[in-house]
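Below is a filled-in request sheet from our internal design queue. Each sheet records the structural input a requester submitted and the sequence that came back. We keep these sheets so that new team members can see what a complete request looks like end to end.

REQUESTER: design group, bay 2
PRIORITY: normal
MODE: inverse folding
CHAIN LENGTH: 236
BACKBONE (tokenized):
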């Protein structure tokens, strides 16, 4: 995750360096001056992500029965549709494809077969977001963004009747999340570039429990909810 944040900062600094002459000179050159006056416009995004689980337990687990969740970096790609509602407010639909994985380690087991669950996910996300932009200064315009999304997990194992005793960790196929974040619009001569950092927070429990109510893998889990950090690079 640290590498992703560093990459985001380096790209932002590079973009600011490229825009420096048009920002700080006495007579700045304003790129795409009327771009944001469009009622509707389109774009696409590429990015990186790190998905995790927030795990709540029914009772505090003993030290030898903890569950360690480790998120791995993934990537994302998608489209953007924008409807301008106001000079400073936009409604955005940003359907995207997200590849993610987490590794769950159950400390009470000694064998690798029982101890580790590699939970891979392929998400199709359907977020509806509201973007609040500040006043544009030269070729830079900071913004806040937030909204709700429904997400389809194509790798959920939800339809499988097998449980963890057969190495099947199952989560629900559809989940709901809310998203908050911030970013910067950078106006170049021919396009607008918008790097952003966002947090994603699951709203409901996603776990499908094993048939055995005392299952060591799911029996003491009250809820599992998605947590994620997204870094998107959007081009309009």
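RETURNED SEQUENCE:
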């Amino acid at each position: 995750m640290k590498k992703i944040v560093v990459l985001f900062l380096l790209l932002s600094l590079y973009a600011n360096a490229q825009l420096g002459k048009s920002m700080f000179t006495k007579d700045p050159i304003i790129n795409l001056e009327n771009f944001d006056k469009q009622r509707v416009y389109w774009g696409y995004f590429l990015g990186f992500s790190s998905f995790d689980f927030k795990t709540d337990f029914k009772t505090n687990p003993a030290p030898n029965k903890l569950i360690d969740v480790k998120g791995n970096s993934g990537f994302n790609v998608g489209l953007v549709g924008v409807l301008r509602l106001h000079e400073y407010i936009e409604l955005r639909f940003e359907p995207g494809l997200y590849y993610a994985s987490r590794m769950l380690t159950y400390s009470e087991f000694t064998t690798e077969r029982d101890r580790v669950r590699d939970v891979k996910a392929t998400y199709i996300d359907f977020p509806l977001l509201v973007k609040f932009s500040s006043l544009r200064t030269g070729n830079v315009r900071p913004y806040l963004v937030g909204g709700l999304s429904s997400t389809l997990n194509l790798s959920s194992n939800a339809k499988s009747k097998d449980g963890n005793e057969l190495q099947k960790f199952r989560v629900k196929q559809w989940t709901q999340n809310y998203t908050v974040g911030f970013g910067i619009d950078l106006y170049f001569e021919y396009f607008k570039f918008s790097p952003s950092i966002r947090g994603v927070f699951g709203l409901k429990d996603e776990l499908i429990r094993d048939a055995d109510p005392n299952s060591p893998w799911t029996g003491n889990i009250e809820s599992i909810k998605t947590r994620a950090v997204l870094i998107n690079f959007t081009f309009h």
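SHEET NOTES:
- Residues 162 and 168 are 6 Å apart (CA to CA).
- Helices lie at 2-24, 112-115.
FILED BY: M.R.
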